[in-house]
Amino acid sequence: MTLATSAEVVLDHGTGAKLSQELIGEIVDLLGEAYLGEMEDSATLPLPGGRIAMTTDSFVVDPPFFGNGDIGKIAVCGTVNDLAVVGARPLYLTLGMIIEAGLPMERLRQVVTSVRDTALEAGVHVVCGDTKVVGRGEADKIFLNTAGVGVFEREPLRMRHVRPGDRVVLSGPIGNHTVHLLSIREGLGFETRVLSDCAPLNGMVDELLAAVPAGAVRSMRDVTRGGLAAVLHEYAAAVGRPVRFDQAALPVQFETRMATDMLGIDPIHTANEGCLALFVDPAAEADVLAALRAHRYGGHAVTIGEVGTDEGAGVFSRAEDGTAARVDELLGAELPRLC
Amino acid sequence: MTLATSAEVVLDHGTGAKLSQELIGEIVDLLGEAYLGEMEDSATLPLPGGRIAMTTDSFVVDPPFFGNGDIGKIAVCGTVNDLAVVGARPLYLTLGMIIEAGLPMERLRQVVTSVRDTALEAGVHVVCGDTKVVGRGEADKIFLNTAGVGVFEREPLRMRHVRPGDRVVLSGPIGNHTVHLLSIREGLGFETRVLSDCAPLNGMVDELLAAVPAGAVRSMRDVTRGGLAAVLHEYAAAVGRPVRFDQAALPVQFETRMATDMLGIDPIHTANEGCLALFVDPAAEADVLAALRAHRYGGHAVTIGEVGTDEGAGVFSRAEDGTAARVDELLGAELPRLC
C-alpha cells in the first residue's frame, strides 16, 4: 500500500513504520526540486553569517481546498510573507502536516503540489518536514505548520522605525480572501467572482526595497488574521500616535463589498493572504506606489491614510464628509479558520 | 476577558483581534526568559556563519497531559533531540499551537510552562510562535508544532559515516514512554511505575561528543515513532549491511516488559522520547558507554549489537541460545499518537 495505491490516508501512515516511510518518500518525490532536505533528523544547511529571521505559522483554513488555492499555498505564502515584511530574504521552510485519517490521498498530493509550486515561485526550499495522522474526528481534514528562516541582506524593517506623518499604503484590495472562503462555506455564490488574494509577496517586496532609498519604507505587515484594523491598531499602539485612514480610499472590489455588506462585516476586519500595509516616508510615497504597481501583486496599491503628528494612539476612519470615527479593536474577529 | 479571567480557550482567542493579542501577551509572559522573540512578524536573530541544522515536528500526543510530562515538554524535547543527534547545538525554537476551543486555560498554561522549563533546561530559546483555535470537535484538545534551528560547532554526524563492525549502543531503556501513555489511555494501572523517558538529550550528547575523539560516534538517532526497529532498519538500508542485536541485551524495565507482553507488542516497536541509538567505532565503545552513563539521562546505556561485516541489509534479533530471527519492518506501528 503506497501513496500511489492507497486511496486515503490511514493512521498507519503516521506511525513511523514502513507506511510512514513510503508516504514521506512520495511526498519528497512530489516536492521535487523544491525540497532541499537530506532525510536525516535535521537538515544541514549553508547560511551566510550575520542575522537571520525566523517565523512560524499554523494553518487550519476551512475549507482547506478552495477556488484558486489551498492550504498548501497559504502555508508557504504566510511564512514567506512574514519573513519578507521584516526585510529578510526567505530561504528555508519546514513543513509539518497533521492529517485526519480518511483524507483522500489525492487531496494530500494536491497540498504537497501546491507547497512545491508556491515554494518554487517564492524561491524558497522546503528543508524538512513531519507528518502526523490522527483518527477520524480528531482533526478537520488537514492542518499545516510552516516555519521559515530568512537572511538579512538589508537592515531589518521594524515597527519602531515608523514616524509621525508617515503614509499608510495598502498593496492591494482587502476582503477578497475572506469573502472567497466564507462564500464557499456558506454557499453564497460569490466564490467565482471574488478570488483569494493568496500570494507570495517576497518578490514584490524585494523589487520595492531595491527601488527606494533605504529607510523609505519604515515597516510593513502582511494583513492577515485580524485584518487591516488589527494591523493599524498594532502600529498605533507601538508608535503612540493615531493612525487615520480614508474610508473611500480603501481598495475593496465591488462584489466583495456586496458580500461583506450582506454578511454584516467590515472589510477592515477581514483576513487576507496577499496584501501588505506599508508605513512609508512621505517623500518616497510616489516611488513606493510606482514600485508596487509595477508588480503583478501590487497593481491596486494605494495610499489610504497616515500616522498622525498629534499624541495618543487609536485608529480613526474618515468619511467622505470629513467626519472621523474611532475604529474599535475587536475583542475577537468572529471569523475563525480563514488561515 | 484574559488568559487570567477566561476559564477556557474560545474561538476568538485565535482570530487575530484583541483577545488573540491578550492570549499571546500572556503566553510570552509565561515563557519568560525562555522567549527571545520581538513580537514582529519574524524574529531577528544573530547566528554565526557556516552551517545550520533545521528540523520540525508536529505533536499530537494522546493524552496531551500525562504522569510525568505533557505535550509541551515533548514538543521541546523532540525538536531539540533531532538537532542534537546530527551534531548541532540547538539554539532557536518556533512554537505553533492548534487548540480546540474549550481547552481549559489552566491546561494551556501548563503546556506553555512545560515549554518554558524544558527550553531552559535544554538551553534553547523560543523565538516566535503562533496560536490557532479551532472549534470543538475540529481537533483533539491541543496539537503543537516546533521547528528548530541549531548551529554546527563540529562536523555533522551522518548516517553514511556508519561502517561495518560499528557497535550499536542504546542510551537508555526502551518502551517506557509508550507503556506510560497506553496505560493511561487504557486504564492498565502501570502509569505510576512506568514513567515516560521524555527528556532533552542535547546536554548528554554534548558531553559525549566532547569526551570521545571526533568520528568515534558515527551517527545517532533518537528512538521515537516506529521504535528501535524502525531506526535499525533505516540504518541497515542506508549502510547496506545487516544490523544484529541481542534480545537479552535490550534495556527494558521489568514492569514495561509485563505491560508490553500483556498488550502483545514488542518493545522494539515502541515510541520513546528520551533514548538514543548510537553507532559507534568499536575502539571507542567503552568511552562512549562511560560518557553516557555519567549523565543522568544515560545511566542505563548499553551495547545491544553491531553492524555486520557481511553484505545485505536487514535487522536480526539474536536469542540467548544463539539463534537469529529476522525482524520485519512493520507496515504500520499500529500505535498512533504517542508523540
UniProtKB/TrEMBL annotation, chains A, B:
Source domain of life: Bacteria
InterPro entries in the record: HypE, PurM-like_C_dom, PurM-like_C_sf, PurM-like_N, PurM-like_N_sf
Domain PurM-like N-terminal: 40-151
Domain PurM-like C-terminal: 163-313
Transmembrane segments: none
SUPFAM superfamilies to which the protein is assigned, alphabetical: PurM C-terminal domain-like, PurM N-terminal domain-like
Sequence similarity: Belongs to the HypE family.
PANTHER family named among the record's database cross-references: CARBAMOYL DEHYDRATASE HYPE (PTHR30303:SF0), HYDROGENASE ISOENZYMES FORMATION PROTEIN HYPE (PTHR30303)
Designated name of the protein: Hydrogenase expression/formation protein HypE
Species this protein is from: Saccharothrix lopnurensis
Classification lineage: Bacteria, Bacillati, Actinomycetota, Actinomycetes, Pseudonocardiales
Name of encoding gene: hypE
